[in-house]
Every structure is written in C-alpha cells, then in structure tokens.
Amino acid sequence: MSSNRADFEDRTAIVTGGTRGLGLAITKRLLDLGCNVAICGRSAPETPIQAGGREALFVSCDVRDPQQVSDFVKTVANAFGNIDFLVNNAGGSPESDAATASPRFAQAIINLNLLAPLYLSQAAYPHLEKRRGSIVNIASVSGQRASPGTAVYGAAKAGLLGLSRSLAQEWGPAIRVNSIVVGLVETETTEQTYGASASQAKIAASLPLKRLGTGEDVARAVIFLLSEDASYISGASLEVHGGGERPLFLEIVKADATESA
Question: Which residues are identified as catalytic?
C-alpha cells in the first residue's frame, strides 16, 4: 500500500488511453489508491477496468478532436464533481519512412501525440486550477534522441516535452505540469516493437538495469509526480528508462579492439 494514499482517496483523475498498455497500469494504480478514474478511447474495453474495489469510468472519445475532448471533460466533471489529475498517456505511431510519410499521416501523429495533450490540458484547466491539480504528460526517449523510422512521432514527443515546460511556467502555482520520459518498456506490442524473445533479452541486457521497463514502473513514477511528495516539482522531465540506451559507438570501438587484439 502506497504511503501516498491520502493524496488520492476520493479525488478524480483522467487517464487518456487508459484501457491498455501503460495507461491501463496507471489506471489500476490510481484505482488501488482510492481515486476516481475516468478513461477514454475510441472503443470500450472488453471488460470494465477495475482495481481496489473501484471501476474506471469509460467514455468514448477521440482525443484528436477538440470538441470530443471538451465533451469528455464535461462528462467527467459532471460525474465526479471535480477533476484533480490529468495523465496524458494516449499516443504512439506505426513505423513510417520519413521520406514517404504522407501529410495526412504526419498530421495524425502530431495530433495524437502533441495536440491531443494540449486539448485535454486546456479543457481540464478550469477544474484543475480550482483544485490546485497536477498534469503528467507521458513522453518518450524518442523525443530526446534520434527516432529513425518514427521521425514524426519523435518530433511530436519532443514538442510535448517543450509544451510541458511552458505550461508549468504559465499555470503555476495553481497547476503543476511534468513529463515522464519513457524508455524501452514491455506492453502488449512488445514483440512487434522489439522482436522475438531472444532479441528482447539482448536489448534488456544492453540496459544498465538489465531489463525492459514495465507498466508498473511507469505507473509508480506517475503516482510520485501527482502526489504531494512532488509538491515542489513542476516543469520537470522524469526519465524512466533503466539508465538509458548504450551509445552504439562504444560497441563498435569494443568490437574493433577485440578484432585487432
């Protein structure tokens, strides 16, 4: 049981993309702590999301649509009477060659990963301001380093980090705004992203902590940033990446040294 439970009991959180992956882990952690949680997506989960004797409220919403976002936030406020926390988790991108990515594709990726968090933050602003609330934006290491194959996604996540810092400046002291920089983590799409189990093992071994991250790792970081333990943290980017990826040049140097020995 978390020592932060008093910070969450009977408060209300919105978690976008809360039906699967990292969003599901975050949602269950908040429910366990006694929080009212509203989640959204374009399709409902097969079974209701439950934890800690509570059930998340699901509302169908395309977070790329400002009007749907506005309606979603109003529904949550009417259902629970307040909104204390916002976790902008929805995001992602299929692989796409930057040279041939269509304008429509690029716009869709930017809308989902950068503009949607802005729309949600704007819609929730008056509620969060009244409650001295907190926003956590789920970013990615792709926004901090090159992201070949997902260049538009990387650019959008870099923009999200910048947006978080700017909102923290504009909206303090009433609202704290922070980001989590997510590294290589296991989700439902682990095999699609990292290959077969043998490849995953090699990737995990390359990280300082010798394992891929989990949804629970990210969820714990979210809880920390939302809690009063982080009351003087705003405009920050918390890196949850197991120590970071090893620079490729080190492996080249090591291999060449071995060959010439």
Answer: 153
